[in-house]
Design goal:
2 copies of one chain form a homodimer. With about 350 residues, the first copy, chain A, is α+β, with helices and mostly antiparallel strands. The first copy, chain A, has 11 helices and 13 strands. Chain A has helices at about 10-15, 15-25, 70-85, 110-125, 175-195, 205-210, 220-225, 240-250, 265-275, 280-285, 300-305, and strands at about 35, 40-45, 50-60, 90-100, 130-135, 140-150, 165-170, 235, 255-260, 290-295, 310-320, 325, 335. In chain A, the strands form 2 sheets. In chain A, strands 8-10-7-11-9-12-13 form a 7-stranded mixed sheet, sandwiched between helices. In chain A, helix 5 packs across helix 6.
Chain lengths: ~350, ~350
């Protein structure tokens, strides 16, 4: 009798299913563990305030390419993408830890650049760097950031609170970060083939900024507090709008529709998409890395958001049986599908 | 005029100096950031309880060698080394996050093994896995663990509270993890040269266990609570006794002496050191990875520790001008020097 060892490739599962599969047998044991895996951040109950914790791993060659990402921008972005997860809980980030694994190819001066970006993010978003770990790697650079935030128990917003009839809203605009990446990748290819040619980035300031130095939506959280609005569900848009709508639908047990014509796509993004022969709405739905917020509100709060700065109403929550759909400008209905990240 | 770009190699600074150098310009902004960089863990003030946070990065090829470290043990160890940092603050770990970067060489079954070890550690130490991130890497496996604990403000123990006259104590015994590693490395070399030869690990159960599946000293923290003892300073022994004594001396602005004859080294450790032509006390001072606790107590608390289980009195805190020294069995006095880790 042969004992065959089963081998399942990581790609067979995909990222979300993999995490679910690996972490399903971890029941929470501590009373203070108010929320575990499955939202933008974990929540720890401290009696009065809740502590919110989120963590991200950025790997050279997978998440960033140092041939066009300045280290200072990388440090900045590594911090703010974590802060985005804390804001997406309707909480305020307060502390971060930063761990690095890096090869000897990096000099102290290179690390100073990276930390200059980390410091700039800490200053702008008023968070404290309180810890970390630094070690070597055999190849490249890896950054692990953990953000810790604070929120009030009855104001934290999870993914699972949306109900039929709720209004679906987004901050800012979508597709820019993805198209910024396309421009940077194109110019890198041209440079590799014709080293004398200067990169042509003119006219792409906005989308390159969205890709290299994104800002995250603390201002939306501030507007909510001012208006005494607590969204019913919220998530940050890191993997594209479609993926995030599906996350809310799954967690809340609801359906949703998105009106294509209401999704905010800037003119520069729209034009660049066409230049690359891409469909602009596809860039918004599947592009990723925009770090805007997607949230739902009770219909009674509609007047509160209607005049908020940089917030758009893009759809509605429906019954689960209706699924998650896109109502196109042409009057058609498409099922939303998640691309997510396919790393492996 | 040429603009010369300065390049300082990471090795020119060393790990501790590098962290200090990079993080010196990060003043704490939030009232809740009770303790930032420079102790076993950061401390966040939540009004009633304090949240204690520690994070570690483990890199394949640097911190572990999968040719002799089973993935289940690796998962277990990755968790407990972080818990050790929380205990070293006299706090109780409650939650962890685990982030992984891994190449496609790993199968889902391999990850299941890793998570089985993580789960075992969570169960034994009663902590909850509440988050993480999973991504791909171009080479090998990298594990980033962050542990979150809870403590009472007036009972947390930092590195900086030792004062002249305090008694220096340690838990357990030292040198075992380092010698366990030597045995595993030796057997790996023999295997590589003579693939037919079975590894000879007999008689080394204890030290191999210390290396592959260390346990950390929650029991010491429990004994402290029971005896109503709050150490004046504490640190976990991850880089060897010498390095940790020096950390306490530097943070507290004191000197210390360690009595060689009082440092606990098990017979198996002692004999294995001699077999490898190593000085046993050097293995204890510089070996690392023992994850015991080093702590200091006020002399008035001496009777409390004298009969505690598995705790030894190994020296005394002195004035800073006396430096940190080892009093050898032969009556000589040596300056303690830190090896720490030289990764780069």
């Amino acid at each position: 009798m042969s004992t065959e060892i089963k081998r399942t490739e990581l790609n067979d599962l995909g990222e979300f299913a993999l995490i679910e599969h690996l972490t399903k047998n971890f029941p929470l044991q501590n009373k203070s563990s108010a929320k575990g895996i499955g939202d933008d951040a974990a929540v720890i109950d401290n009696g009065n305030f809740q502590t919110v914790i989120s963590t991200d791993l950025l790997v050279e060659g997978i998440h960033f390419d140092l041939s066009y990402v300045p280290l200072k921008h990388l440090g900045y972005k590594a911090v703010v993408v974590n802060l985005s997860d804390i804001y997406a809980m309707n909480a305020i980030p307060k502390q971060i830890t930063v761990s690095l694994a890096l090869s000897s190819r990096f000099s102290v001066e290179a690390l100073e650049e990276l930390y200059a970006g980390i410091r700039q993010a800490c200053e702008f978003y008023q968070v404290d760097l309180v810890g970390g770990d630094t070690t070597s790697s055999l190849t490249g650079l890896l950054i692990s950031v953990t953000a810790v935030g604070q929120g009030e128990a009855d104001k934290l917003v999870y993914r699972n609170g949306a109900k039929p009839g709720d209004i679906l809203c987004m901050t800012g605009d979508l597709g820019g970060a993805y198209l910024g990446l396309q421009v940077l990748e194109r110019e890198k290819q041209i440079y590799l083939e014709h080293p004398g040619v200067q990169p042509e980035l003119k006219g792409h300031d906005y989308i390159i900024g969205k890709q290299l130095k994104p800002e995250v939506r603390y201002d939306a959280i501030e507007q909510f507090a001012k208006a005494e609005l607590v969204p019913t569900a919220m998530i940050d848009i890191s993997d594209g709008l479609a993926s995030e709508v599906l996350h809310i639908c799954k967690a809340s047990g609801v359906g949703a529709f998105v009106e294509e014509g209401h999704v905010i796509i800037k003119q520069e993004v729209f034009q660049t998409a066409l230049d690359f022969r891409l469909d602009p709405i596809t860039c918004a739905l599947s592009g990723g890395e925009d770090y805007e917020l997607l949230f739902t509100i009770d219909i009674k709060d509609l007047e509160k958001v209607r005049f908020m700065n940089d917030i758009a109403i893009i759809g509605e929550i429906t019954d689960a049986k209706d699924g998650a759909t896109l109502h196109t400008k042409g009057g058609k209905i498409h099922q939303l599908t998640a691309q997510g990240w396919k790393h492996f």
